[in-house]
Amino acid sequence: MERIKMTTPLVEMDGDEMTRILWQMIKDKLILPHVDLQTAYYDLGLISRNDTDDQITVDAANATKKYGVAVKCATITPNAQRMVEYPQLKKMWLSPNGTIRSILDGTVFRVPITIDIIKPVVKTWEAPITIARHAYGDVYKGVELKLEGAGTAYLAFEGRDGVAQRQVIFETPEGAGSGDGGASEVSGAAEAFGAVILQGVHNTERSIRAFARSCFRYAIATKQDLWFSTKDTISKTYDGYFKEVFEQESVNYKEQMDALGLEYFYTLIDDAVARVIRSKGGFVWACKNYDGDVMSDMISTAFGSLAMMTSVLVSPDGPVEYEAAHGTVTRHYYRHLKGEQTSTNPIATIFAWSGALRERGERDGNRDLMDFGDALEAVSLETLNAGMMTQDLVGLVEGADVVPQSMTSAAFLDEIARRLATKLA
After folding, report:
1. What count of Cα atoms within 13 Å lies in the side-chain half-sphere of residue 200?
2. Which of 86, 129, 359, 409 is deepest in the core (most CB within 10 A)?
3. Alpha-carbon distance 214 to 171, whole Å?
4. Coil, helix or strand for 203?
C-alpha cells in the first residue's frame, strides 16, 4: 500500500528511558509502514537538554507555535536522585512540560481511555471524568529559597510607576537574636529554629481567563457539566481570583450551557474530591495546575491505569501538544538495559501519536491522515478488549468473556500492527 502523505510537519519531541524505547517501537511498527511521516524533530532527552542548557526545550515549544501541532514523549524532570544517576548534569533543570506549557499557556485536557473489560475502581462511575488542568504558573514556575539564620522574609512588588508593596511572609520569633549577645546570639537563635524554606508562585489574569474560557468551551463542545474547585477559604487572594474569574466567565456561557441542560458548579477542592468519588462521572473537572497534576493521576488510576490516559495541551492561540500523562517508566528501563523483555503499557503514547496525526490531518484537510488516527485507536482498543494486553492491566480485568493474556511490549505492539494492517487493507 502507498503510504499516506503529509503536507505539513508536526513537531516531534523525543524523551527519556523506557518511553523513549516505546516511542521508536511505535513509530517503526505502527506509523512508518503506513504514513510518510514528516516531523520537526527535537530531542528532549535529559542529556540533550543538559548539553543545550535547556534551549532545545524552548526551541521545541516555539516550533509548536510555528507548526501548530506537536507530539511529546515522556521526559525526566531531574531531582536530587537524578543528579546522582546523571553526574554530568549541570543543574536540576526545570520540568520540560512546565517550560513548554508556560510558553504555550492554555489548558491540559486529560481523559481516561476506557475499555469494556476493565471497570472503574469507583463502582458508581458510569462515564469518564475529564480533568481540565490549568497549564501556566503555580509551583511549576515557582521560585524557592532555603535559608539559615534569624530574620524576616517578605513578599515584595516594585511597580514601574514607583508604587511598591510589601508583606511579611515569615519572621523569626520575637527576641531571637535581639539581645546583647551580638552575632553569637543570632547564630544560636537561628540554629535552634532551624532552616526556613520559602516559595513564591504567580499567575496572570490573561492566563486564568483563557483557562476558564477553554473549560467552558470544552464542556459545551462535549456536552458535559463543568466543575471547578480551589481553596479560596484559605487562599483568599490567589485562589479567590481564580474563583472570581470563573464566575465572571460563567455569565458569558450561561445561555449556551442552559440550552444544553448543563451546569457550572463551584466548590472547595476538598469537597470536590468527596463529590467526585460519589458521582456517576461524565463531567469536566477544572483544576489549578498542581491540583490537576495530582487529580489526573488519581482519576486515571481509578479508571484503570495511568498508562491509559490521554493528555492534550490546548493553547488559546491555536497550537496543541499531545503527550502521555505518565512518566518515563524508570524501573522497566533498567530491566531493558539488562537485556530483559518488559511488559510496559504503550497505549497512552500510541494515543498521543494518533491524536497528533488526526489533528494534523484535520488542519491540513488530509482525510486519509485523520482516518489513520481513528484506525490506530480503534485497533488498539480492539486488541485490549480481546484480552491481549500488558501486565499492568491483566489483574484489572473482571467479568469478561475473554481470558486476559499478558504480553511483552514488543508482542503487544506486533499484535496491534497486525490488526492495523488488516483494517487499513
Report:
1. 12
2. 129
3. 41
4. coil
What pLDDT shows up at residue 181?
46
Give the chain's residues under pLDDT 50. Answer: 176-183, 186
CA distance 33 to 2: 9
pLDDT value of residue 304: 84
Q: What is the pLDDT of residue 182?
A: 46
CA 25/CA 409 separation, integer angstroms: 9
Q: Which residues pair with 225 in a beta bridge?
A: 283
pLDDT value of residue 195: 85
10-14 sheet: strands from edge to edge: 39-43, 10-14, 69-72, 320-324, 309-314, 107-112, 130-134, 283-287, 225-230, 264-268
Burial of 345 (0-12, 13-18, 19+ CB in 10 A): buried
Structure confidence at residue 101 (pLDDT): 87
Judge whether 387 and 405 are in contact, CB under 8 Å: yes
> What pLDDT is attached to residue 70?
98
Report pTM: 0.85
Ramachandran region, residue 42 (left: φ > 0; alpha: ψ -120 to 50; beta: rest): beta
CB 316 within 8 A of CB 106: yes
Handedness of CA 376, 381, 383, 384 (dihedral sign): positive
Q: How far is CA 210 from the centre of its chain?
A: 18
Whether the Cβ atoms of residue 311 and residue 19 lie closer than 8 Å to each other: no
Give the Cα separation of 361 and 357 in Å (integer).
6
